[in-house]
Amino acid sequence: MKIMVTEVENEGLTALMGKTVTLFCGVYIYTGKLVGVNDTCVKLEDAGIVYQTGSFTDKKWKDCQSLPNDWYVTTQSIESFGELK
């Protein structure tokens, strides 16, 4: 069975530009303001690594450690993403 994928303009990561996003990756969870997207990576401002989420209904992560600078995450490592907080 063939499944057709239709590309929609301004959908996916690019639709979230300027918003605080959460990226679930193979090992870590990253969060920050999405300020850049290209074919190989995304750029986060005010980025952090989430070590403990707590409840997803909580307004803050249970343990989120700030990263010292803007942070880049490869798109191939992103399993899922969205606007959680």
Explain what the structure shows.
There is one protein chain. The radius of gyration is 14 Å and the shape is globular. Strands 1, 2, 3, 4, 5 and 6 form a six-stranded antiparallel β-sheet that branches. 16% of the residues are buried. With 85 residues, it is mostly beta strands. The mean pLDDT is 91. The protein contains no helices and six strands. The N and C termini lie far apart (38 Å).
Short description:
Helix content is 0%, strand content 47%. With 85 residues, it is mostly beta strands.
The sequence of SSEs as H and E is EEEEEE
Mean pLDDT: 91
Radius of gyration: 14 Å
The percent range for strand residues is over 45%
Secondary structure class reads mainly beta
Quaternary status of these chains?
A: single chain
- Which ranges are low-confidence, i.e. pLDDT below 50, for 5 or more consecutive residues? none
Summed up, the helix count is 0
- Dominant shape: globular
Q: Fraction of residues in helices? A: under 10%
Strand segment count:
6
Termini Cα gap: 38 Å
Largest sheet: 6 strands, antiparallel
What attributes does this structure have?
6-stranded antiparallel sheet, 0% helix, mainly beta, 47% strand, single chain, 85 residues
How do the helices and strands line up, and which of them pair or pack?
Layout: E1 20-25, E2 29-37, E3 41-52, E4 63-66, E5 71-74, E6 78-82
Antiparallel strand pairs: 1-2, 1-6, 2-3, 3-4, 3-5
